Amino acid sequence: MGWERELEELRHREALAEAMGGPDKVARQHGRGKLDARARLAGLVDPGSFREIGKIAGKGSYDAEGNLTGVLPAPFLFGKATINGRPVVATADDFTIRGGAADAGIGRKMEQAEKMAHELKLPIVRMIDGTGGGGSVKTLEMIGATYIPAVHMWGEVVKNLDTVPVVALALGPTAGLGAARIAASHYSIMVKGLSQIFAAGPAVVDAMGTAWKDEGSANHEEAKEALGGSAIHTRNGVVDDEVGSEAEAFARARHFLSFMPEYVGQPARRVETGDPADRREEALLSLVPRGDKEVYSMRRAMDLVFDKGTVFEIGRMWGRAAITALARLDGWPVMVLASDPSFLGGSWDAKTSEKVERFVKLADLFRLPIVHLVDNPGFMIGREAEIAGTIRYGVQAMNAIYKASVPLASVVMRRAYGIAGSAMSNADTYQYRYCWPSGDWGSLPIAGGLEVAYKSEIEAAADPEAELEAIRARLAKVTSPFRSAERFNVEDIIDPRDTRPLLCEFAELAWRRRGADQAPR
User: How confident is the model at residue 520, as a pLDDT?
Assistant: First the structure.
């Protein structure tokens, strides 16, 4: 006699697990415009690649004779899968089972998923919906006691941040531990109108008597958006990006991972992009206007310089004076840091500095060379900037650049002033730096200090306005970038059209330094 009866029970338990919270709960999930956990896993990973682990874990119900009458599945699914042909740990919270609360073995499963990622050196993707393994009031009655809060798996979460790429997708109203799991990632996404993040949801906030409400919040859904919608968290830096659909979130998660190594220490992959390394773009020659107050599109410059179609911007809606992106040069992956002269003139405010620090550290962790496109008039000034603590955040960004051990190439396209301008690179290392003829740099902008520095001469002149113009004309010659090049304060002034070929050369040398010439393609 074989084990047919046991296998029949296994198939029965698997069928119960596949039913998730039951047809009514699944229908309710779909009615909210949300995919269920199993559909999300199918949409994220390569077709047919998901192998579930712990599928039948949950809380069983039995009759008086000990026969199984039902199973409450654990509201968390995970397993091994592939994305872009590479192995990952894929996870999904199941909101159809008590909103993803910490029931039926979820804590043990979450811990094992994080351990699997860490010990096998696999990227992990968390799709979070609900409390994400957090507690609920009903849980206290079920266990018959309260407890001092502790997150026993958090040590694994911390380890993963130092060892493998971590991606988090907020796919519903997410509070408590779920919100923390989103923030503890290298790349995070919210879906507009579908995702909200809070330390505690509207009902709890109201119960605590905390003032917060948007007077226009007429119902529960509007209240959730007002308290923690994507319009808030993709602009304050809690979450990197906002998308319009779950399918777009899956696509961006896959795209981000395509630039990353599978773990810290492994080289990221070079790919064939079909874009010649010696491509020279005529449009770069006239990109920077002659008027120092005129703006131009740095994103246009990036599209012209990096491999076509490879620029993957991250965090577009926060810290907006700096653009951060992943891109490729002759197929080699690089991290891009670029000034945005269309926002605050490119001046680094507190949020921009925080963003720069975070992404430089990300590049250094995963050993991605950095390309810095510079047009920085300095730190933001004024009372609001001082209240925000701009100089502290700015110094922390500068510290990150000086601590980074990956190769960095900077291209000074226009301005580089003050301490923020000096944070373009580590001045104590070899300067892999190019400057355009439009370069304009110094300890402070001439326009901001000229009338103070020459106050006595201007006041003593018979014609103060004429004297001021004469001083400006003299200083315009002194501040020529070619004068800096004479003193080798600037390594190379280049034709802007040569930017891409020279940066492709940098990328090849940077990856050669890593011994990554044989990185898998």
Answer: 46
